[in-house]
Amino acid sequence: MHSDATRAAFTLSLIHQRRDDRRMTAVAVLQSGSRVFLGLDNGVLEEHRCVPASAAGALPPAVAAAAGGMLLLRLLAEKKVFSKAAMAAICPVEAAARLVCMSDEGQVALVSLEEFAVAPLPAARGAVAVAVQHSAGLPVLLAVAVRAGKARSKVLLFNVLPGANLSSHQPAVLLAQTPVPEAVLGLVWAGQSLLLAVPGGYRALHPVVTHAPGQQQQQAANYQLVVLADHLSSVQPLLGCIAEQGLGLMLWEGNMVLVTDASGAAVREPLQLPSQPIALSAAGLFVVALCDDGVHVFDHSRGSREVQHIDFAHDDAYVRLAGRLPAASDAGGRCICLATSSQVLRLEPIAIEQQVRELLKRKRFDQALDLIHNTAAETAAAAAGPGGGSCPASPHRSHPQQQLLSPTLLQAPDASPFGVTAAAVRRPQWHQVALAQAGLLLLVECEWHAALAVLEQLEPSTWQPCQLFGLFPALTAR
């Protein structure tokens, strides 16, 4: 396992500490992490707003002032969703303005985001797992795995209906159901397919597409069950997903995590962990695995490299007993929230410009250049639009106007003391400026060939060779 201790891709901070004896059992994140929903062991759903510590009202003024930009949760509302059972899972359906809640006794209910109105879903009684398909709009598909007898299950597929007033109509329409001959332990969406965790292995449900008469759009009315693995005896199957890219995450033997496509086939090298994880999540280009020894961050777009390790000891008897920790990321991958019984922690990506800056400071030029090139390619693909390819949104994408260099290191061409000007010079994009700084620092390190290779990639509006004339006044003075 390759670990790069010098790179910081995420920050981990405590944003909530419970002051009562109620235990947190589920978590969900919406709107780039600004809204956090917590499920409690008494069936209550809480809505919190993430606010600066100075505005939270939970700290003394002196402590809040010292906290600076630290974020905390502020309770906005709470609702009793299940009368006795604990909340086991919360899945946001932002396009339909609802939350899907599941209790540890197998009840499923849909909660309106606007009014906190609760509508049960009787057809999903006996639920053991729920998953909502990643979708920017409607329709939104909800998958529910329910018990169907001893060591048997079935997967129900619902279309979640929009609307704030849940009492006016049924909250979801049953579209399909597929029997599974094993007990389902968990499920996630990978594109249009479902990945299932079962005792000793994994299964996949692939849609069987048919053409409905008189309709141009294809519809999937049935799903085909496929065996992916049935020989995993040394690990408890665990699933995660990279929703925006339609990829799945599977815990494999040897504490490996596979990044798979919708068919269940691995698309990257395995991610190697030191111990069995208790949660798998993703944000942008990064896969986050939480183990008992801390948080492990991988850049899944570049093989199996671990880019960061964050020490974190949950010290939670309930988590240790279950072998699972509630974790959730928002739809845009802007943050990940982890919930122990009494604490909520927030993993937030660090801006790519700051990561590049830190790598350059530590003379990790190869890694800095990789980040610059990968992010520039991602930005170009996104700017091309639907006709020129697509690329998943990244929480690390930079503001094009942000600069990394000080004016003393990189002058604009029209500010050259040697009279070289460029009319109407546009402000360079951040990756051009970052490449310029990397090239100049390579020159300082006497890495001539590498420096020239980088500097040749720059546009004239960003950097020109004449800007080095000041280093050789005896030769360039006129």
Summary, kept brief:
The protein has 478 residues and is of the alpha+beta class. The protein has helices at residues 53-56, 61-67, 317-322, 352-361, 365-384, 430-444, 448-455, 473-476, and strands spanning 10-17, 24-30, 35-40, 44-52, 71-80, 87-93, 98-103, 108-112, 118-120, 127-132, 140-147, 153-160, 172-180, 186-190, 193-198, 201-211, 218-229, 239-242, 247-252, 256-260, 271-272, 279-283, 286-291, 294-299, 306-310, 327-329, 336-339, 343-349.
Notes on the structure:
This protein is α+β, with helices and mostly antiparallel strands. 15% of the residues lie in helices and 37% in strands. The protein is built from 8 helices and 28 strands. The protein has helices at residues 53-56, 61-67, 317-322, 352-361, 365-384, 430-444, 448-455, 473-476; strands at residues 10-17, 24-30, 35-40, 44-52, 71-80, 87-93, 98-103, 108-112, 118-120, 127-132, 140-147, 153-160, 172-180, 186-190, 193-198, 201-211, 218-229, 239-242, 247-252, 256-260, 271-272, 279-283, 286-291, 294-299, 306-310, 327-329, 336-339, 343-349. The strands form 7 sheets. A 4-stranded antiparallel sheet has the order 1-28-27-26, with no helix packed on it. Strands 2-3-4-5 form a 4-stranded antiparallel sheet. A hairpin with a 2-residue loop joins β15 and β16. α4 runs antiparallel to α5 and α4 (352-361) packs parallel to α6. The protein is elongated. Mean pLDDT is 82; it is low at 1-5 and 387-426.
